[in-house]
Model the fold of this input.
Amino acid sequence: MTYLHNIGAYFLMIKDMFRKPTKWSVMKTLIFKDIDDLIIGSLGIVAFISFFVGGVVTIQTALNITSPFIPEYLVGFATRQSIILEFAPTFISIIMAGKVGSFITSSIGTMRVTEQIDALEVMGINAINYLVFPKFIALMLYPFVISIAMFLGIVGGMAACVLGGYSSLEAYIIGVQTDFIPFHITYAFIKTFVFAFVLATIPSFYGFYMKGGALEVGKASTTSFVWTSVVIILLNYVLTQMLLS
Amino acid sequence: MIEVKDLQKSFGDAHILKGISTTFENGKTSLIIGQSGSGKTVFLKCLLGLFEKDSGTITYDGNIYSELSDEQKRNLRSEMGMVFQGSALFDSMTIAENVMFPLRMFTKQSKSEMQDRVNFVLKRVNLPDAHKKMPSEASGGMQKRVAIARAIVNNPKYLFCDEPNSGLDPKTAIVIDNLIQEITEEYNITTIINSHDMNSVMEIGEKIVFLKDGLKAWEGSKNTIFKTDNEAVTDFVYSSELFKKVRKMYLEENQ
Done:
Protein backbone atom coordinates (compact mmCIF):
# COMPACT_ATOMS: atom_id res chain seq x y z
CA MET A 1 0.00 0.00 0.00
CA THR A 2 2.87 2.36 0.87
CA TYR A 3 4.46 1.63 -2.52
CA LEU A 4 1.25 2.56 -4.34
CA HIS A 5 0.94 5.72 -2.26
CA ASN A 6 4.54 6.64 -3.05
CA ILE A 7 4.08 6.03 -6.77
CA GLY A 8 0.97 8.24 -6.78
CA ALA A 9 2.72 10.95 -4.76
CA TYR A 10 5.72 10.78 -7.13
CA PHE A 11 3.57 11.44 -10.21
CA LEU A 12 1.72 14.25 -8.43
CA MET A 13 5.09 15.78 -7.63
CA ILE A 14 6.03 15.57 -11.34
CA LYS A 15 2.77 17.40 -12.18
CA ASP A 16 3.47 20.07 -9.55
CA MET A 17 7.00 20.49 -10.89
CA PHE A 18 5.54 22.17 -14.00
CA ARG A 19 2.85 24.23 -12.19
CA LYS A 20 3.13 27.80 -10.88
CA PRO A 21 6.57 28.47 -12.35
CA THR A 22 9.09 30.46 -10.34
CA LYS A 23 10.08 33.90 -11.66
CA TRP A 24 12.55 33.43 -14.53
CA SER A 25 15.22 35.75 -13.10
CA VAL A 26 15.33 33.58 -9.95
CA MET A 27 14.97 30.28 -11.81
CA LYS A 28 17.88 31.15 -14.13
CA THR A 29 20.22 31.48 -11.14
CA LEU A 30 19.00 28.21 -9.67
CA ILE A 31 19.53 26.37 -12.97
CA PHE A 32 23.10 27.64 -13.31
CA LYS A 33 23.83 26.68 -9.71
CA ASP A 34 22.46 23.18 -10.25
CA ILE A 35 24.43 22.79 -13.50
CA ASP A 36 27.53 23.62 -11.50
CA ASP A 37 26.66 21.27 -8.62
CA LEU A 38 25.26 18.34 -10.58
CA ILE A 39 26.99 18.39 -13.97
CA ILE A 40 30.30 20.22 -13.68
CA GLY A 41 30.84 18.81 -10.19
CA SER A 42 30.48 15.24 -11.51
CA LEU A 43 32.90 15.50 -14.42
CA GLY A 44 35.99 14.61 -12.40
CA ILE A 45 34.70 11.35 -10.95
CA VAL A 46 33.03 10.36 -14.23
CA ALA A 47 36.25 10.99 -16.18
CA PHE A 48 38.34 9.03 -13.68
CA ILE A 49 36.00 6.02 -13.58
CA SER A 50 35.40 5.98 -17.34
CA PHE A 51 39.08 6.04 -18.21
CA PHE A 52 40.03 3.17 -15.92
CA VAL A 53 36.95 1.02 -16.49
CA GLY A 54 37.54 1.44 -20.24
CA GLY A 55 41.04 0.10 -19.64
CA VAL A 56 39.76 -2.84 -17.60
CA VAL A 57 37.15 -3.77 -20.24
CA THR A 58 39.91 -3.81 -22.86
CA ILE A 59 42.27 -5.94 -20.74
CA GLN A 60 39.55 -8.46 -19.89
CA THR A 61 38.41 -8.69 -23.50
CA ALA A 62 41.97 -9.14 -24.74
CA LEU A 63 42.78 -11.80 -22.14
CA ASN A 64 39.66 -13.78 -23.06
CA ILE A 65 40.48 -13.86 -26.75
CA THR A 66 42.73 -16.86 -26.97
CA SER A 67 41.92 -18.20 -30.42
CA PRO A 68 44.35 -17.10 -33.16
CA PHE A 69 41.39 -17.04 -35.59
CA ILE A 70 39.80 -14.10 -33.83
CA PRO A 71 41.15 -10.86 -35.30
CA GLU A 72 43.17 -8.53 -33.08
CA TYR A 73 40.91 -5.56 -33.81
CA LEU A 74 38.06 -7.28 -31.95
CA VAL A 75 39.44 -5.85 -28.70
CA GLY A 76 38.69 -2.28 -29.86
CA PHE A 77 35.33 -3.35 -31.27
CA ALA A 78 34.23 -5.05 -28.02
CA THR A 79 35.43 -2.15 -25.91
CA ARG A 80 33.50 0.35 -28.02
CA GLN A 81 30.32 -1.70 -27.93
CA SER A 82 30.50 -2.29 -24.16
CA ILE A 83 31.17 1.35 -23.41
CA ILE A 84 28.66 2.94 -25.77
CA LEU A 85 25.83 0.52 -25.22
CA GLU A 86 26.06 -0.19 -21.54
CA PHE A 87 28.93 1.16 -19.51
CA ALA A 88 28.59 4.88 -20.22
CA PRO A 89 24.80 5.29 -20.10
CA THR A 90 23.88 2.72 -17.45
CA PHE A 91 26.91 2.10 -15.23
CA ILE A 92 27.70 5.82 -14.98
CA SER A 93 24.03 6.51 -14.18
CA ILE A 94 24.19 4.10 -11.25
CA ILE A 95 27.29 5.91 -10.01
CA MET A 96 25.49 9.23 -10.49
CA ALA A 97 22.53 7.87 -8.48
CA GLY A 98 24.99 7.60 -5.60
CA LYS A 99 26.77 10.89 -6.14
CA VAL A 100 24.16 13.27 -7.51
CA GLY A 101 21.12 11.42 -6.13
CA SER A 102 22.27 11.44 -2.53
CA PHE A 103 23.33 15.08 -2.87
CA ILE A 104 19.84 16.01 -4.10
CA THR A 105 18.04 13.98 -1.41
CA SER A 106 20.18 15.22 1.44
CA SER A 107 20.11 18.87 0.38
CA ILE A 108 16.32 18.93 -0.10
CA GLY A 109 15.81 16.73 2.99
CA THR A 110 17.86 19.11 5.11
CA MET A 111 15.75 21.99 3.83
CA ARG A 112 12.67 20.03 4.94
CA VAL A 113 14.10 19.33 8.41
CA THR A 114 15.15 22.94 8.96
CA GLU A 115 11.74 24.28 7.81
CA GLN A 116 13.24 26.02 4.76
CA ILE A 117 10.64 24.31 2.55
CA ASP A 118 7.88 25.51 4.90
CA ALA A 119 9.34 29.01 4.58
CA LEU A 120 9.05 28.79 0.78
CA GLU A 121 5.47 27.53 0.99
CA VAL A 122 4.44 30.23 3.47
CA MET A 123 5.67 32.81 0.97
CA GLY A 124 3.33 31.30 -1.62
CA ILE A 125 6.14 29.77 -3.67
CA ASN A 126 5.63 26.42 -5.38
CA ALA A 127 8.47 24.69 -3.52
CA ILE A 128 8.47 21.69 -5.86
CA ASN A 129 8.93 23.88 -8.91
CA TYR A 130 11.52 25.99 -7.10
CA LEU A 131 13.59 23.01 -5.94
CA VAL A 132 13.06 20.20 -8.44
CA PHE A 133 12.58 21.93 -11.80
CA PRO A 134 16.10 23.48 -11.91
CA LYS A 135 17.60 20.07 -11.17
CA PHE A 136 15.55 18.53 -13.96
CA ILE A 137 16.73 21.21 -16.43
CA ALA A 138 20.35 20.95 -15.23
CA LEU A 139 20.30 17.19 -15.73
CA MET A 140 19.14 17.63 -19.31
CA LEU A 141 22.86 18.33 -19.85
CA TYR A 142 23.61 14.85 -18.52
CA PRO A 143 24.18 13.46 -22.08
CA PHE A 144 27.17 15.79 -22.20
CA VAL A 145 28.64 13.94 -19.21
CA ILE A 146 27.90 10.61 -20.87
CA SER A 147 29.59 11.75 -24.12
CA ILE A 148 32.72 12.45 -22.10
CA ALA A 149 32.39 9.05 -20.40
CA MET A 150 32.14 7.34 -23.80
CA PHE A 151 35.13 9.19 -25.18
CA LEU A 152 37.34 8.64 -22.13
CA GLY A 153 36.27 5.00 -21.80
CA ILE A 154 37.45 4.32 -25.35
CA VAL A 155 40.64 6.35 -24.81
CA GLY A 156 41.28 4.48 -21.53
CA GLY A 157 40.80 1.19 -23.40
CA MET A 158 43.24 2.34 -26.06
CA ALA A 159 45.85 3.29 -23.45
CA ALA A 160 45.51 -0.05 -21.66
CA CYS A 161 45.63 -1.93 -24.94
CA VAL A 162 48.76 -0.25 -26.22
CA LEU A 163 50.60 0.00 -22.90
CA GLY A 164 49.76 -3.59 -21.99
CA GLY A 165 50.75 -4.84 -25.44
CA TYR A 166 47.41 -6.60 -26.06
CA SER A 167 47.17 -5.31 -29.64
CA SER A 168 48.58 -2.58 -31.81
CA LEU A 169 47.21 0.96 -31.79
CA GLU A 170 46.16 0.57 -35.44
CA ALA A 171 44.24 -2.64 -34.72
CA TYR A 172 42.46 -1.03 -31.77
CA ILE A 173 41.45 2.01 -33.85
CA ILE A 174 40.24 -0.23 -36.70
CA GLY A 175 38.22 -2.18 -34.11
CA VAL A 176 36.66 0.96 -32.73
CA GLN A 177 35.56 1.93 -36.28
CA THR A 178 34.39 -1.53 -37.38
CA ASP A 179 30.66 -2.08 -37.99
CA PHE A 180 29.74 1.18 -36.34
CA ILE A 181 25.97 1.59 -36.15
CA PRO A 182 24.98 5.25 -35.53
CA PHE A 183 21.66 4.18 -33.99
CA HIS A 184 23.59 2.76 -31.04
CA ILE A 185 24.56 6.32 -30.12
CA THR A 186 20.92 7.40 -30.46
CA TYR A 187 19.89 4.46 -28.28
CA ALA A 188 22.49 5.39 -25.65
CA PHE A 189 21.33 9.01 -25.57
CA ILE A 190 17.64 8.09 -25.38
CA LYS A 191 18.52 5.99 -22.32
CA THR A 192 20.60 8.84 -20.94
CA PHE A 193 17.74 11.35 -21.18
CA VAL A 194 15.36 8.94 -19.44
CA PHE A 195 17.92 8.22 -16.70
CA ALA A 196 18.54 11.97 -16.29
CA PHE A 197 14.83 12.44 -15.58
CA VAL A 198 14.94 9.59 -13.04
CA LEU A 199 18.12 11.01 -11.44
CA ALA A 200 16.49 14.42 -11.00
CA THR A 201 13.08 13.33 -9.76
CA ILE A 202 13.37 10.21 -7.57
CA PRO A 203 16.03 11.67 -5.21
CA SER A 204 14.04 14.93 -5.09
CA PHE A 205 10.91 12.98 -4.16
CA TYR A 206 12.64 11.23 -1.26
CA GLY A 207 14.14 14.51 -0.04
CA PHE A 208 10.98 16.56 -0.39
CA TYR A 209 8.61 14.18 1.36
CA MET A 210 10.94 12.98 4.12
CA LYS A 211 9.82 13.30 7.72
CA GLY A 212 11.94 13.45 10.85
CA GLY A 213 15.41 14.71 11.64
CA ALA A 214 19.03 14.31 10.65
CA LEU A 215 18.97 10.51 10.95
CA GLU A 216 16.03 10.34 8.54
CA VAL A 217 17.93 12.50 6.03
CA GLY A 218 20.60 9.78 5.93
CA LYS A 219 17.98 7.05 5.60
CA ALA A 220 16.19 8.96 2.84
CA SER A 221 19.48 9.30 0.91
CA THR A 222 20.07 5.55 1.11
CA THR A 223 16.49 4.72 0.10
CA SER A 224 16.66 7.19 -2.77
CA PHE A 225 19.89 5.59 -4.05
CA VAL A 226 18.35 2.11 -3.89
CA TRP A 227 15.17 3.10 -5.74
CA THR A 228 16.93 5.26 -8.31
CA SER A 229 19.23 2.33 -9.11
CA VAL A 230 16.33 -0.14 -9.28
CA VAL A 231 14.34 2.12 -11.62
CA ILE A 232 17.39 2.75 -13.82
CA ILE A 233 18.07 -0.99 -14.14
CA LEU A 234 14.42 -1.77 -14.93
CA LEU A 235 14.11 1.05 -17.46
CA ASN A 236 17.41 -0.05 -19.00
CA TYR A 237 15.89 -3.46 -19.65
CA VAL A 238 12.62 -2.06 -21.00
CA LEU A 239 14.31 0.50 -23.27
CA THR A 240 16.79 -2.05 -24.59
CA GLN A 241 13.97 -4.43 -25.39
CA MET A 242 12.02 -1.65 -27.12
CA LEU A 243 14.85 -0.03 -29.04
CA LEU A 244 17.26 -2.82 -29.94
CA SER A 245 15.26 -6.02 -30.24
CA MET B 1 -7.63 41.30 11.20
CA ILE B 2 -7.75 37.52 11.35
CA GLU B 3 -10.89 35.79 12.55
CA VAL B 4 -10.93 32.10 13.39
CA LYS B 5 -14.20 30.23 13.88
CA ASP B 6 -14.54 26.69 15.22
CA LEU B 7 -11.19 25.53 13.79
CA GLN B 8 -10.74 21.76 13.94
CA LYS B 9 -7.86 19.59 12.84
CA SER B 10 -7.05 15.91 13.32
CA PHE B 11 -4.15 13.69 12.31
CA GLY B 12 -5.53 10.18 12.03
CA ASP B 13 -7.20 9.40 15.36
CA ALA B 14 -5.49 12.30 17.15
CA HIS B 15 -7.89 15.24 17.44
CA ILE B 16 -5.44 18.14 17.83
CA LEU B 17 -7.65 21.24 17.46
CA LYS B 18 -11.15 20.75 18.82
CA GLY B 19 -12.95 23.88 17.70
CA ILE B 20 -11.04 27.10 18.37
CA SER B 21 -12.60 30.51 17.79
CA THR B 22 -10.80 33.82 18.32
CA THR B 23 -9.88 37.11 16.66
CA PHE B 24 -6.49 38.76 16.09
CA GLU B 25 -6.54 42.52 15.55
CA ASN B 26 -4.36 44.77 13.39
CA GLY B 27 -1.47 46.56 15.06
CA LYS B 28 -1.57 44.26 18.05
CA THR B 29 0.77 41.54 19.22
CA SER B 30 -1.20 38.42 20.03
CA LEU B 31 0.33 35.48 21.82
CA ILE B 32 -0.77 31.87 21.70
CA ILE B 33 0.42 30.06 24.79
CA GLY B 34 0.01 26.58 26.16
CA GLN B 35 1.90 23.49 27.14
CA SER B 36 3.82 21.40 24.62
CA GLY B 37 1.31 19.32 22.67
CA SER B 38 -1.57 21.72 23.28
CA GLY B 39 -1.91 22.41 19.54
CA LYS B 40 -0.17 25.79 19.23
CA THR B 41 2.02 24.93 16.25
CA VAL B 42 -0.78 23.09 14.45
CA PHE B 43 -3.02 26.12 15.03
CA LEU B 44 -0.37 28.46 13.58
CA LYS B 45 0.28 26.18 10.60
CA CYS B 46 -3.47 26.02 9.90
CA LEU B 47 -3.57 29.82 9.88
CA LEU B 48 -0.65 29.85 7.45
CA GLY B 49 -2.28 27.28 5.20
CA LEU B 50 0.56 24.79 5.72
CA PHE B 51 -1.97 22.34 7.20
CA GLU B 52 -5.40 21.80 5.66
CA LYS B 53 -8.03 22.33 8.37
CA ASP B 54 -10.79 19.73 8.83
CA SER B 55 -13.54 22.27 9.53
CA GLY B 56 -14.14 25.84 10.63
CA THR B 57 -13.30 29.12 8.90
CA ILE B 58 -10.29 31.40 8.85
CA THR B 59 -10.96 34.93 7.61
CA TYR B 60 -8.24 37.38 6.61
CA ASP B 61 -9.63 40.94 6.54
CA GLY B 62 -13.04 39.68 5.46
CA ASN B 63 -11.76 37.07 2.98
CA ILE B 64 -12.50 33.47 3.93
CA TYR B 65 -9.29 31.58 3.16
CA SER B 66 -10.91 28.33 1.98
CA GLU B 67 -13.09 30.22 -0.52
CA LEU B 68 -10.14 31.97 -2.20
CA SER B 69 -8.85 30.82 -5.60
CA ASP B 70 -5.28 29.47 -5.85
CA GLU B 71 -4.16 32.81 -7.28
CA GLN B 72 -5.81 34.73 -4.41
CA LYS B 73 -4.28 32.35 -1.86
CA ARG B 74 -0.86 32.93 -3.41
CA ASN B 75 -1.36 36.69 -3.27
CA LEU B 76 -2.50 36.45 0.34
CA ARG B 77 0.53 34.38 1.25
CA SER B 78 2.83 36.96 -0.26
CA GLU B 79 1.35 39.34 2.35
CA MET B 80 2.36 37.01 5.19
CA GLY B 81 5.67 36.98 6.98
CA MET B 82 6.77 34.06 9.10
CA VAL B 83 9.54 33.72 11.65
CA PHE B 84 10.18 30.02 12.19
CA GLN B 85 11.35 28.46 15.43
CA GLY B 86 14.70 27.53 13.89
CA SER B 87 14.78 30.72 11.77
CA ALA B 88 14.63 28.63 8.53
CA LEU B 89 17.13 30.83 6.72
CA PHE B 90 18.24 29.53 3.32
CA ASP B 91 21.72 28.28 4.10
CA SER B 92 22.98 28.55 0.52
CA MET B 93 22.38 32.33 0.58
CA THR B 94 24.07 35.18 2.42
CA ILE B 95 22.10 37.13 5.01
CA ALA B 96 21.45 39.94 2.50
CA GLU B 97 20.28 37.44 -0.13
CA ASN B 98 17.98 35.81 2.42
CA VAL B 99 16.37 39.14 3.23
CA MET B 100 16.17 40.11 -0.45
CA PHE B 101 14.55 36.80 -1.40
CA PRO B 102 10.86 37.84 -1.00
CA LEU B 103 11.56 41.03 -2.98
CA ARG B 104 13.16 39.06 -5.80
CA MET B 105 10.22 36.66 -5.87
CA PHE B 106 7.29 39.04 -5.57
CA THR B 107 8.29 42.52 -6.72
CA LYS B 108 9.55 44.11 -9.89
CA GLN B 109 11.98 46.39 -8.07
CA SER B 110 15.39 47.12 -9.56
CA LYS B 111 18.45 45.67 -7.90
CA SER B 112 19.38 49.01 -6.32
CA GLU B 113 15.85 49.49 -4.95
CA MET B 114 15.96 46.01 -3.45
CA GLN B 115 19.42 46.68 -2.04
CA ASP B 116 18.17 49.90 -0.42
CA ARG B 117 15.22 48.11 1.14
CA VAL B 118 17.47 45.30 2.45
CA ASN B 119 19.86 47.87 3.94
CA PHE B 120 16.94 49.65 5.61
CA VAL B 121 15.42 46.48 7.06
CA LEU B 122 18.73 45.07 8.29
CA LYS B 123 19.41 48.38 9.97
CA ARG B 124 15.92 48.23 11.50
CA VAL B 125 16.73 44.88 13.14
CA ASN B 126 20.12 46.20 14.30
CA LEU B 127 22.22 44.21 11.85
CA PRO B 128 23.66 46.92 9.62
CA ASP B 129 26.93 45.09 8.86
CA ALA B 130 25.82 41.49 8.46
CA HIS B 131 25.07 41.51 4.72
CA LYS B 132 27.80 39.20 3.53
CA LYS B 133 27.71 36.68 6.34
CA MET B 134 26.28 33.21 5.76
CA PRO B 135 23.52 32.08 8.17
CA SER B 136 25.87 29.48 9.63
CA GLU B 137 28.24 32.28 10.67
CA ALA B 138 25.51 34.12 12.59
CA SER B 139 24.56 33.54 16.24
CA GLY B 140 21.08 32.34 17.24
CA GLY B 141 19.93 35.87 18.07
CA MET B 142 21.30 37.23 14.80
CA GLN B 143 19.55 34.47 12.85
CA LYS B 144 16.25 35.35 14.53
CA ARG B 145 16.73 39.01 13.65
CA VAL B 146 17.52 38.09 10.03
CA ALA B 147 14.39 35.93 9.99
CA ILE B 148 12.38 38.92 11.24
CA ALA B 149 14.01 41.13 8.60
CA ARG B 150 13.09 38.62 5.88
CA ALA B 151 9.55 38.40 7.22
CA ILE B 152 8.96 42.16 7.15
CA VAL B 153 10.97 43.16 4.07
CA ASN B 154 7.96 42.96 1.75
CA ASN B 155 5.69 44.95 4.13
CA PRO B 156 3.48 42.04 5.20
CA LYS B 157 0.00 42.55 6.62
CA TYR B 158 0.31 39.50 8.82
CA LEU B 159 3.33 38.38 10.82
CA PHE B 160 3.53 34.92 12.38
CA CYS B 161 6.27 33.89 14.79
CA ASP B 162 6.74 30.34 16.06
CA GLU B 163 8.57 30.51 19.38
CA PRO B 164 10.87 33.36 18.33
CA ASN B 165 12.70 33.24 21.68
CA SER B 166 13.49 29.56 21.86
CA GLY B 167 17.17 28.92 22.43
CA LEU B 168 17.97 32.56 23.18
CA ASP B 169 19.37 34.05 26.35
CA PRO B 170 16.90 36.22 28.36
CA LYS B 171 18.46 39.51 27.27
CA THR B 172 18.40 38.68 23.55
CA ALA B 173 14.88 37.28 23.97
CA ILE B 174 13.69 40.66 25.28
CA VAL B 175 15.39 42.43 22.35
CA ILE B 176 13.55 40.14 19.91
CA ASP B 177 10.22 40.61 21.74
CA ASN B 178 10.54 44.38 21.72
CA LEU B 179 11.58 44.38 18.07
CA ILE B 180 8.50 42.37 17.08
CA GLN B 181 6.22 44.65 19.08
CA GLU B 182 7.74 47.82 17.66
CA ILE B 183 7.44 46.53 14.11
CA THR B 184 3.84 45.46 14.71
CA GLU B 185 2.86 48.94 15.87
CA GLU B 186 5.00 50.76 13.32
CA TYR B 187 3.55 48.94 10.29
CA ASN B 188 0.10 48.15 11.77
CA ILE B 189 0.63 44.42 11.21
CA THR B 190 -1.48 41.61 12.64
CA THR B 191 1.11 39.68 14.61
CA ILE B 192 0.59 36.24 16.10
CA ILE B 193 3.29 34.64 18.23
CA ASN B 194 3.46 31.09 19.53
CA SER B 195 5.33 31.16 22.78
CA HIS B 196 6.30 29.25 25.87
CA ASP B 197 8.16 32.20 27.24
CA MET B 198 6.42 33.83 30.21
CA ASN B 199 8.63 36.91 29.93
CA SER B 200 7.14 37.48 26.46
CA VAL B 201 3.65 37.02 27.86
CA MET B 202 4.23 39.71 30.48
CA GLU B 203 6.11 42.04 28.12
CA ILE B 204 4.22 42.09 24.84
CA GLY B 205 1.01 40.08 25.24
CA GLU B 206 -1.58 42.61 24.15
CA LYS B 207 -3.82 39.65 23.51
CA ILE B 208 -3.19 36.19 24.91
CA VAL B 209 -4.93 32.98 23.87
CA PHE B 210 -4.30 30.01 26.13
CA LEU B 211 -4.71 26.60 24.51
CA LYS B 212 -5.18 23.40 26.46
CA ASP B 213 -5.72 19.99 24.89
CA GLY B 214 -6.73 21.55 21.57
CA LEU B 215 -9.26 23.95 23.05
CA LYS B 216 -9.16 27.64 23.89
CA ALA B 217 -9.10 27.53 27.68
CA TRP B 218 -8.71 31.26 28.27
CA GLU B 219 -8.35 34.57 26.43
CA GLY B 220 -7.16 37.89 27.79
CA SER B 221 -4.17 40.24 27.88
CA LYS B 222 -0.97 40.77 29.88
CA ASN B 223 -3.00 42.94 32.26
CA THR B 224 -5.81 40.48 32.88
CA ILE B 225 -3.62 37.39 33.15
CA PHE B 226 -2.57 38.46 36.67
CA LYS B 227 -6.16 38.60 37.86
CA THR B 228 -7.55 35.48 36.25
CA ASP B 229 -8.94 32.68 38.39
CA ASN B 230 -8.73 30.18 35.56
CA GLU B 231 -6.87 27.30 37.17
CA ALA B 232 -5.40 25.97 33.91
CA VAL B 233 -3.87 29.35 33.13
CA THR B 234 -2.52 30.00 36.62
CA ASP B 235 -1.06 26.47 36.77
CA PHE B 236 0.74 27.07 33.49
CA VAL B 237 1.78 30.72 33.75
CA TYR B 238 2.67 30.75 37.43
CA SER B 239 4.38 27.37 37.55
CA SER B 240 7.67 28.94 38.65
CA GLU B 241 8.18 30.39 42.14
CA LEU B 242 9.38 33.67 40.66
CA PHE B 243 6.18 34.26 38.72
CA LYS B 244 4.08 33.21 41.72
CA LYS B 245 5.79 35.95 43.73
CA VAL B 246 5.40 38.50 40.93
CA ARG B 247 1.70 37.73 40.76
CA LYS B 248 1.29 37.97 44.52
CA MET B 249 3.04 41.34 44.55
CA TYR B 250 0.92 42.59 41.65
CA LEU B 251 -2.30 41.53 43.32
CA GLU B 252 -1.27 43.09 46.66
CA GLU B 253 -0.35 46.37 44.96
CA ASN B 254 -3.62 46.50 43.05
CA GLN B 255 -5.98 45.53 45.89
